[in-house]
User: Fold this.
Amino acid sequence: MEEITSRTRILDATADLLRTSGLKGTKLSEVAKRAGMLAPSLYHHFSSKDELIEEVLVEGCHRNTRFIMTRVERLGDAASPIARIEAAITAHLEFLLTGDQYSSAVSRVFPDLPEEIKRRVLAAYAGFDNYWRDLISAARASGNARADLDPTVARKFLINMLDSAAEWYRPGHLEIAEIARQACQLFLHGFAQPQA
Assistant:
């Protein structure tokens, strides 16, 4: 049991540091301090800093995907494709903005990763990306989405728009539910007023 507890403390500390300090600012000495152990003890659990960071980011991808899927699938099969996209948008923002340090770490440091680690994290990210692809494809197949817009472009813009919220969001101005409502409106209905 101690093995799992120590490993979890290390992962949690790393995720929090990545989220707040970025890749370069995450030092193993600080990870160890936050995890309540000596730095050499980290190597009992992980062979390198890169291995530790990769595990945190892969876990972040999996956690976020599970959270979104659970929220969407609760709606049941009768929910419209648009309602499912709205639930996914809301779930993704809630997950990112309510303190899950693993997902926030992914958003913060992914662009700075070495290519080899980035490729492996992208493999874990594929489940997340594929789920969004399926949601958007279902909306298009149902006739509820514009046929003149490329679904890949729509998905990439949507995910990047949502992920960017972790960088600029500050509690106190807008509630997360309101940000999610506005994100749904922007993505599903656009910014400009319809022309008369």
In short: The helical segments are 2-21, 28-35, 49-73, 81-97, 101-109, 115-141, 151-168, 176-189.
